[in-house]
Design a protein that fits this description.
With 234 residues, this protein is α/β, with parallel strands linked by helices. It has a single domain, classed as Rossmann fold (3-Layer(aba) Sandwich). It is built from 7 helices and 10 strands. The strands form 2 sheets. Strands 1-10-9-6-2-3-5 form a 7-stranded parallel beta sheet, with helices on both faces. Strand 2 (30-33), helix 2 (40-48) and strand 3 (57-60) form a beta-alpha-beta unit. Helix 1 crosses helix 2. The longest helix has 17 residues, at 9-25. The protein is globular, with a radius of gyration of 16 Å. The chain starts with a strand and ends in a 9-residue tail after the last strand. Bound molecules: 2-amino-2-deoxy-6-O-phosphono-alpha-D-glucopyranose (GLP).
């Protein structure tokens, strides 16, 4: 893993944008995209740039089960608001939170197989999850419906008016699918990510810290700010 410690989120997001630009110059055609507060600045930089993404296909990591694409809390809505409505892509895929489970898993796995991801952008949960692959997720997992753990529900409740509105399940691309990406950039900012980042990079590779599997991928760049990198020993 190559680790880059940026001064702050702004510098880190700019660095990711520069890497994306480079990947596009090198012929990247499919991006794996993430939601959450982490990539928000990156999407701002992308939308205010003069880059043309109309030849790029995007595949998002996950979606809450039970939320429609029009629901303002859905990840499809987030992506439309922050990126797709401002920068047209060739084709955008996000799991459908209203779909039937088995059908959606098959549909999404097919999409990933037919559009091999050149560059996957990832955030990380405070418990080390990537996408919604919670601790204990198999490294062999593909797209499936997952139960969110208490700490994730807790982190996500800031986005909802009532705690009981926070979805308990999500569709998530699996670990195995994420690992198939040619290149992976994981971003993390802020003190609350420091422990997960330390475990991911310096801890053992274990299903208890899903992101630690990235130690086994040949082409991973980790971009953190000083706070998220503050517990790293090297
Ligand atoms: C969410 C998403 C992840 C995201 C992570 C961190 O639950 N499923 O894809 O990377 O948690 O979110 P944030 O960037 O808001 O800290």
């Amino acid at each position: 893993m190559n680790v880059f410690v940026a001064k702050d989120k702004k510098e880190g997001s700019q660095k990711v944008f520069d890497l994306i630009t480079q990947e596009m110059e090198d012929g990247a055609k499919v991006f794996g995209l993430a939601t959450g507060s982490t990539p928000e600045d990156l999407y701002k930089i992308m939308t205010s740039s003069d880059m043309d993404f109309s030849g790029i296909t995007s595949i998002n990591l996950d979606e809450y089960v039970g939320l429609s694409p029009e629901d303002p809390q859905s990840y499809r809505y987030f992506m439309e608001k922050h990126l797709f409505s401002k920068k047209p892509f060739k084709k955008t895929y996000v799991p459908n939170g209203l779909a039937e489970e088995a059908e959606e898993n098959t549909r999404y796995n097919k999409i990933i197989a037919e559009n091999p991801i050149d560059l996957q952008i990832l955030g990380i949960g405070t418990n080390g999850h990537i996408g919604f692959n919670e601790p204990g997720s198999s490294f062999e997992s593909e797209t499936r419906k997952v139960a969110l753990v208490e700490s994730t529900i807790d982190s996500n409740k800031v986005y909802f008016d009532h705690e009981e509105d926070v979805p308990r399940y999500a569709f998530s691309m699996g670990i195995k699918s994420i690992l198939k990406s040619k290149k992976i950039i994981l971003m993390a900012f802020g003190k609350n990510k420091a422990e997960a980042i330390q475990q991911m990079i310096e801890g053992p590779v274990t299903e208890e810290v899903p992101a630690s599997v990235l130690q086994q991928h040949p082409n991973v760049i980790v971009i953190v700010d000083e706070e998220a990198g503050s517990l790293l020993n090297r």
